[in-house]
């Protein structure tokens, strides 16, 4: 038999239901259904280019965060070697490919080590807000009543607070303005967690309200399934399909919040950990004196990281819209058909 041979599903005898044709290509592995992988398979043309570009930028940041001790030639708070100190505001050279800061730190090492701090804030803050927002949204949407009204009011009130302002208050409350490595990360992560919870809460609650009226949920209730089983097994998987998109967009906001804290002087001290916003704050006086490398490279790290996460999020947003995805595929097929027709006319 050839590889393209179709297989037929067996129908119940006497049911009158025709056999269903099963295509081998339709049987996808579990990993092809993952959010990023499935979007990459569906994307075409410019959309695929945007998604790949975003994934490459995010991959570079992750590699720097994981392998910072191997990539960075010096420590994030190292001022010199056995041969002597590095020197302040040294221009780019073979010893310091991105130069040194006004404090005598190697710029390249600070930028690479700063990726660890950025990734830590994303993981702690966004994961915590995702966990809390999903649970509260499922409970509020399914149970309803006075609990739902109270949670909605609280979520609207918290959502009104600016992220950066709340981050400043948390930084002072947690570390007294003297941020250690984990103190600065905790301050930014806690503020972002509190502000982002309403976003996940609203999305999951709206989906839960829609899903609990679906026939499969009503069937589970008739069969005697408990509320915990209905929420955890039947509603959870369907109500959280759009969360990867919100996760990517909130990750970029987390990076900007951490950088804003450091730029305003409430970030992480250079002796505790590397942080891009703090380096930008210390590089401000260097701009007027012609020292450009102390501010350009930390700034590029922030911009490219946020750009990469945003490209991934926007690409996923477009691909989640079936109308946009089908239209792009239709245009691609029409273009291919047109090219084949032109080649046939040229041969004739």
UniProtKB/TrEMBL annotation:
Residues 115-313 form the ABC transmembrane type-1 domain. Residues 339-348 have a biased composition (Basic and acidic residues). GO terms for cellular component: plasma membrane. InterPro entries: BP-dependent_transpt_permease (IPR050366), MetI-like (IPR000515), MetI-like_sf (IPR035906). It is a multi-pass membrane protein. It is found in: Cell membrane. The chain crosses the membrane at residues 50-72, 118-143, 150-174, 180-201, 243-268, 291-313. Keywords: Cell membrane, Membrane, Transmembrane, Transmembrane helix, Transport. Residues 329-348 are annotated as: Disordered. Its main location: membrane. One of its GO terms (biological process) is transmembrane transport. Pfam families: BPD_transp_1. Belongs to the binding-protein-dependent transport system permease family. PANTHER family: D,D-DIPEPTIDE TRANSPORT SYSTEM PERMEASE PROTEIN DDPC-RELATED, OLIGOPEPTIDE TRANSPORT SYSTEM PERMEASE PROTEIN APPC. This is Binding-protein-dependent transport system inner membrane protein. It comes from Brevibacterium casei S18. The lineage of its organism: Bacteria, Bacillati, Actinomycetota, Actinomycetes, Micrococcales.
């Amino acid at each position: 038999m050839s590889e393209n041979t179709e297989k037929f599903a067996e129908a119940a005898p006497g049911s009158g239901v025709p056999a269903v044709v099963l295509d081998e290509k339709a049987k996808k592995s579990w990993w092809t259904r993952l959010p990023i992988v499935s979007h990459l398979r569906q994307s075409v043309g410019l959309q695929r280019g945007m998604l790949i570009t975003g994934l490459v930028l995010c991959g570079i940041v992750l590699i720097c965060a994981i392998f910072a001790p191997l990539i960075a030639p010096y420590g994030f708070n190292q001022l010199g070697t056995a041969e002597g100190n590095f020197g302040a505001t040294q221009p780019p050279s073979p010893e310091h490919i991105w130069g040194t800061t006004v404090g005598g730190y190697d710029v390249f090492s600070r930028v690479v080590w700063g990726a660890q701090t950025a990734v830590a804030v994303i993981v702690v803050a966004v994961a915590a807000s995702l966990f809390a927002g999903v649970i509260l949204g499922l409970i509020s949407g399914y149970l309803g009543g006075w609990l739902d009204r109270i949670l909605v009011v609280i979520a609207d009130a918290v959502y009104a607070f600016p992220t950066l302002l709340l981050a400043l208050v948390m930084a002072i409350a947690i570390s007294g303005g003297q941020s250690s490595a984990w103190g600065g990360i905790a301050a930014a992560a806690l503020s972002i967690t509190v502000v982002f919870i309403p976003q996940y809460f609203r999305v999951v609650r709206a989906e839960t309200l829609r899903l609990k009226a679906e026939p499969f949920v009503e069937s589970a209730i008739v069969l005697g399934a408990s509320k915990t089983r209905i929420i955890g097994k039947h509603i959870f998987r369907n109500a959280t399909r759009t969360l990867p998109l919100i996760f990517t967009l909130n990750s970029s906001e987390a990076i900007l919040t951490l950088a804003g804290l450091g730029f305003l002087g409430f970030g992480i001290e250079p002796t505790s950990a590397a942080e891009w916003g703090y380096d930008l704050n210390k590089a401000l006086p260097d701009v007027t004196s012609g020292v450009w490398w102390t501010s350009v490279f930390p700034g590029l790290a922030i911009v490219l990281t946020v750009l990469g996460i945003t490209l991934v999020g926007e690409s996923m947003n477009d691909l989640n819209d079936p109308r946009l995805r089908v239209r792009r595929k239709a245009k691609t097929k029409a273009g291919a058909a047109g090219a084949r027709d032109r080649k046939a006319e040229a041969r004739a």
